Amino acid sequence: MKSNDVTEYHTDIVIIGFGAAGGCAAIEAHEKGVASIILEKQPKDSHYSNSRMSGGGFHSPRPDGNFESLKSYAKAMFSGENLPHKLEGEQPEFSDELAELWAKYSPQNESFMRSLDPQFQTMNISNAAFPDFPGAADSGYSVVKSTYSGAEENETTFINPINAPKNLKEAGEAFHTCLLTGVTSRDIPIHYDTAADQLITNDSGEVIGVEAIVQGRRVKYFANRAVIIASGGYEYNKQMRKAFLEGPGVEGWAFYGTPANTGDGIRMGLKVGAGLAKAGSIAGRIICAISERRHGLKIGLNTTGVGKPNEIVVDNQGHRYAAERRITKDPSRYIFYKEALKFDTETLNYPRIPSWMIFDTTMIRNGPVVRLSAAAYNNIDWGTDNLNAVRKGWILQGKTIAELAEKIRAHSDNRAAMDTNVLEQTVCTWNSHCAAGHDPDFGSDPKTMGPVAEPPFFAIPLYPGGPNTKGGLRANPGRQVLDWSDQPIPRLYSVGEVCSVFQFVYQGGGNLAECIVFGRIAGWNASAEKPIQ
Predict the structure, then answer these.
(1) Which of the four pLDDT bands, split at 50, 70 and 90, describes residue 116?
(2) CA distances from 258 to 33, 41, 295, 469, 525 (A)
(3) Strand residue runs (E) in 295-426
(4) What is the mean pLDDT of the segment spanning 30-37?
């Protein structure tokens, strides 16, 4: 309807963002008989959320696991308060209740997703990534991947995931298809190409709606019960990256999630008095970036070649500083970016930003060194044989290690730091370790070791980053947004990457899992709000 030439919509709950969190919240509201409208800033034909662009893995502990053990394991991940060596808890006010909710509802994750689409399947891919955490052994912990084919791996769908038929969909594409089926089968309205701009409050400070921009026009969405912010992180917001991320927040980082994540929910929440929690937290590693940009920021790619034979990772001068498999192995991959953020207090620079993946022709022949699905969502033609990336200059090439060192030194981000002699010696030492089948420097797994020996040689710059940020709005276990005094802002909720519960450490698949668990909880609690009228 229109009022004073401004289009208005009225519903019970307005949900900002259609990813896993927003979708699950809307579904549970519907099951409670409560109407909602989902606002999604991306157009329908190019709606690529982080949920869709993800690997499609999510935690779903076995229902027969021990409840108290599962609660202890979750508490260790969320806050670390039950670890004897931990200096302080990340969220001591809430960690016990958060862990209780996780132990109660996360074992339902698989069955909940299958209830949305009986054709949806899962496959177990890992268990407790932190085996020394309290409760790990008896928690029944399990991480599963999303699939419709049931196959172990389908390289074709990873190359072109968007156009894969439903029965071959894998990973995040399968997860998104299942979620979309659940939402559309319930006739829950999704307003695409609708950018939420600011929250509407009444004289009592209650959040009663959202103003959005639709094709240049301002539209008002009034919520009779609540607003749920599920808008994702701030990976593509320059100012927030400068404010929240450690080190050079703009040029020193790269992300491979959706460019639509521009911190909108954080900005809107702050304007109505919301507090922040662990705003600089990310699910991160070190990944490559290409010269093309979105919002003036580097586009990252999930660099799956790291940690495989025939490559090493070095700093700007050419020194190795870790076992390469740590960079891509769960759980260290999600906190390894901290290693890359080392600050030299004498030279006053970051010697590992960027780091450099050095590899040879053997690796080039063995397939793409990045996850092609992430490239496809960003309309990047990397090439299945890596050669298009070489032609475009995303991969540097040299006939010898010395020539490659010159190419790296000429790269603007290297700041002429690469030392040819150091890089040559590092490669020589690595090759001797490979011949001996032992890495005395960093203890690499022999299965991941292979020499960098066959010319020509190649290099890719690697930056701290990854799929998404995790810090943002402060919220209680019921997902009510809190002000700086920890008082709930009336009728405002948030869920997902904009306020992740993983504020200490992170295990792969946690983002989708928390979107399911706490998206459902947000949907229930928002539905229980007494109507305004």
Answers:
(1) very high
(2) 32, 12, 12, 11, 28
(3) 297-301, 311-314, 355-360, 396-398
(4) 98
Domain final residue pick, 450, 467, 484: 467
**Together in a domain, 60 and 201:** yes
Q: What is the DSSP string of 64-122?
A: TS-HHHHHHHHHHHHT-TTSTT-SS-SSTTTHHHHHHHHHHHGGGHHHHHHHH-TT-EE
By CB atoms closer than 10 A (0-12, 13-18, 19+), residue 45 is exposed
93-111 burial, b if ≥16 CB within 10 A, otherwise e? ebbbebbbbbbebbbbbbe
451 shares its domain with 324: yes
Residues 450 and 474 in one domain: no
Instruction: State how many domains the chain has.
Output: 2
Distance CA 36, CA 104 (A): 26
State the pLDDT confidence band at 362, using cuts at 50, 70 and 90: very high
* CATH value at residue 393: 3.90.700.10
Q: Which range of residues forms the domain containing residue 372? A: 284-467
Q: Say if residue 201 is in the same domain as residue 223.
A: yes
| Per-residue model confidence (pLDDT) at position 2 | 53
Q: What's the CA gap between 180 and 166, in Å, rounded?
A: 12
Measured CA to CA, the distance from residue 377 to residue 381 in angstroms comes to: 10
Question: Comparing C-alpha atoms, which of 301, 292, 306, 219 is closest to residue 256?
Answer: 301
CB atoms within 10 A of CB 176: 25
Q: Which of the 8 DSSP states describes residue 351?
A: T
| Residue among 321, 323, 301, 288 nearest 374 (CA) | 301
Answer yes or no: are the C-beta atoms of 248 and 337 closer than 8 Å.
no
pLDDT of residue 163: 83
Q: What is the pLDDT of residue 292?
A: 87
Q: Are 94 and 182 in contact (CB under 8 A)?
A: no
pLDDT given for residue 153 in this prediction: 62
Q: Residue 521: which pLDDT band, with cuts at 50, 70 and 90? A: very high
Beta strands 355-360 and 457-469 are antiparallel
Given pLDDT bands bounded at 50, 70 and 90, which one contains residue 325?
Answer: very high
Residue 305 CB partners (closer than 8 Å, separation 6+) = 311, 357, 359, 363, 368, 369, 370
Are 454 and 308 within one domain? yes
Could you report how far apart the first and last alpha carbons of the chain are, in Å?
A: 18
172 and 300 in a single domain? The answer is no
Residue 251 maps to a domain: no
What's the average model confidence in pLDDT over 36-49?
A: 97
Instruction: Point out the least confidently predicted range of 139-148, 261-270, 371-380, 488-497.
Output: 371-380
Mean pLDDT, all residues of the chain: 95
Judge contact between 42 and 195, C-beta under 8 A: no
Q: Which structure tokens are listed for 454?
A: 């066959």
pLDDT score, position 159: 65
Retrieve residue 31's tokens.
């099951």
Cβ(187)–Cβ(165) below 8 Å: no
